[in-house]
Amino acid sequence: MKTYLDCIPCFMAQTLRAGQVATDDEHKIKELLDEVGSKIREIPMTCTPPETGEFIYRLVREVTGVEDPYREIKKKSIREVLSLLPRLRDMVKSSEDRLLAAIRLATIGNVLDFGIQRRYDLMEEIGKMEHMQYAIFHYDSFRERLAQTDSVLFIGDNAGESVFDRLLAEELGRPVTYVVREVPVINDATREDAIESGLHEVATIVSSGSTAPGTILRLCTGEFLEMYRDSGMVISKGQGNYEGLSESDRQVFFLLRAKCPIIARDIGVNVNDFVLLDSSLSGHHP
Amino acid sequence: MKTYLDCIPCFMAQTLRAGQVATDDEHKIKELLDEVGSKIREIPMTCTPPETGEFIYRLVREVTGVEDPYREIKKKSIREVLSLLPRLRDMVKSSEDRLLAAIRLATIGNVLDFGIQRRYDLMEEIGKMEHMQYAIFHYDSFRERLAQTDSVLFIGDNAGESVFDRLLAEELGRPVTYVVREVPVINDATREDAIESGLHEVATIVSSGSTAPGTILRLCTGEFLEMYRDSGMVISKGQGNYEGLSESDRQVFFLLRAKCPIIARDIGVNVNDFVLLDSSLSGHHP
Prior knowledge:
The structure is a homodimer.
Chain A: H1 7-22, H2 26-39, H3 49-64, H4 71-93, H5 98-109, H6 119-127, E1 134-137, H7 139-148, E2 152-155, H8 161-172, E3 176-180, H9 191-196, E4 204-207, H10 222-230, E5 234-237, H11 238-245, E6 253-257, H12 261-267, E7 274-278
Parallel strand pairs in A: 1-7, 2-3, 2-5, 3-4, 5-6
Antiparallel strand pairs in A: 6-7
Helix pairs in contact in A: 1-2, 1-3, 2-3, 4-5, 4-8, 5-8
């Protein structure tokens, strides 16, 4: 997805938020805003938004000296969801369609953002799971592809959400490679977060090499690019990965809640809609 | 009020919005965002936010060549409220406390912003007028001051809202000078808008000289500064004027709805709260 004009004030808002999480020093935060502001002229609108995100969160690390500002938030989020795991696993196991239940839970997991969702709200979302309506739901296509593949490349998004992803990985019935970010960026799952979520028990964890809050292919390792090209099935969680991969020329199953109005419009859904999108069935696929 | 860090992303959002109202040319809007972004480093946090607003809206006029992007929106807003005027005047006249009713209506008028409030919503607000609760309501002090003064300086805010101000001007029972902006800036009332609202029938209209979306004393004319200093009573409508005058060393009656979370926090109220604040009774007065 390209950068829209509306993304630009949002870059500044993200800078402010990330700065405030990393430090109390208002001068440093102002310095971050100054620096990002002065770089706006250089942002090509053809770039994807997470490419600018990469710049922003790297700058936050450099200026504040805090390597992983969301560390505690991520840990807390993972702990909360882990405490629910046995209950969630029972829900999946007792479902008539276990794969469907795991997909629904993995979508609800994407509601978790910045670790601010409270346990109560999360349980409320989960309680309404049976009635979940997707604005786009390419489930048949998802099942068909899964039946034909002998492995799955599963690109993760946030920490905490990663625990839900573990349940889906368990239900795929194929060897799963779970993809994390190379460095801490916002609350996105790194290798450490994936391990804390227990994903190493059900999948091989690899870093895409991306240091952006999304999968930006030009930032990825050769090893990842090969897996991405050759894998029989790719599942991509969340908005950041959608932004990076929506114009990629291979089939990707995007699983997300559209939280940003610009991304929602790009997909063709409304804000807060749930989406399971087979890119090969959409106009997005070249 | 000083500039807070949270104001900075908002400056960018205002630039985008004003650019989109003035032109469909995405390149010109991007140019506006580039320019405002690159100026952030130069914004002293001791400045009031409307001083940056002055820069933004001047830039929009220069880059787009559109002198008054909100012209039609303002005209429509004034027309809508004028169509309600006889009804509103009856409401005031039939009230037990006419001054109170006129103050309430003038506060509701401040809900009008960007002309996007629909007539329906407006009538709904007006319908609930009897039950209006103010978070700060220095009405006794307002009445006392009014009884002692022989004229009132009334600093206007938005076009449309200006029609409500006319009703309050009628109820003050003193010669009123109604203050407008020197140039079109957002949907703020200019001399032309005040005349369309009929304010010339009940008040003397003067420009403060301010080209900002607020009353910034250093941008005002000597003539206005003299009136501001010497007037027996000053009423100031809306957020922009509050931002400019909140630290001024004279008594001002601020009448507004707190729409911005930063301004609300500065005043010490919640977002959407109604306020009639006598600055001499608050901690804001030096």
